[in-house]
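Q: Predict the assembly, please.
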Amino acid sequence: MKIIFLGAPGAGKGTQAAEVSRRFGIPTISTGNMIREAIAGGSPIGIAAKEKIAKGQLLDDETVIGIVRDKLNSIQGGYILDGFPRTIAQAEALEEMGVEIDAVINIYVPDDTIVKRAAGRRYCPGCGATYHTEYNPPQKKVDGESGDGVCTLCGTPVAVREDDKEATVRRRLEIYHSETQPLEDFYKARGKLATVVGQELVADTTALTLQALEKGN
Ligand SMILES: [Zn+2]
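A: Predicted assembly structure:
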């Protein structure tokens, strides 16, 4: 089975992809890993990608498509694509490669919910532990000082990652809506799209995802 996961950054598609991967016994192939592998392997396209990254350039569709094509050609059987395709051009390239996708799962979570979840995330600059003010709060300081608290493991005051700040999250969501969301219509037109509404609990979203995959067969 070949499955694509769509979903805004922060909607939890990576988590769902990992769960489906485990249950179906098929690998998850992420664009990030493919690019790292191509660079480490020193293929011509990997070398080209390395040069672009070293110059601080974003990888263009052509380079990303080339790397994905090389990788997919080397795989027998099913897989889950995470982070590819990200644009209509990439989706068209996937079709041109002759890849038959069985299902496209679109994990939907409203923007405001994604922003709210990110706003509660904290991390420990000391040991890297992660927290959430609501679901997994850090320890309160004993002397009643203000602030978010300290790391339960090492006592360092917790902090907010740049990535989780509202402006950063909203910017990423805008890019997703303009570049990647058109893929929903692309795959709907091909009868492949199933939208799963992301739930509060990961396990509930997984149940809906598995249901959608069973219906698709
Ligand atoms: Zn810590």
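The chain has a mean pLDDT of 91. The pocket of zinc ion is lined by residues 124, 126-127, 129, 151, 153-154, 156 (CB under 6 Å).
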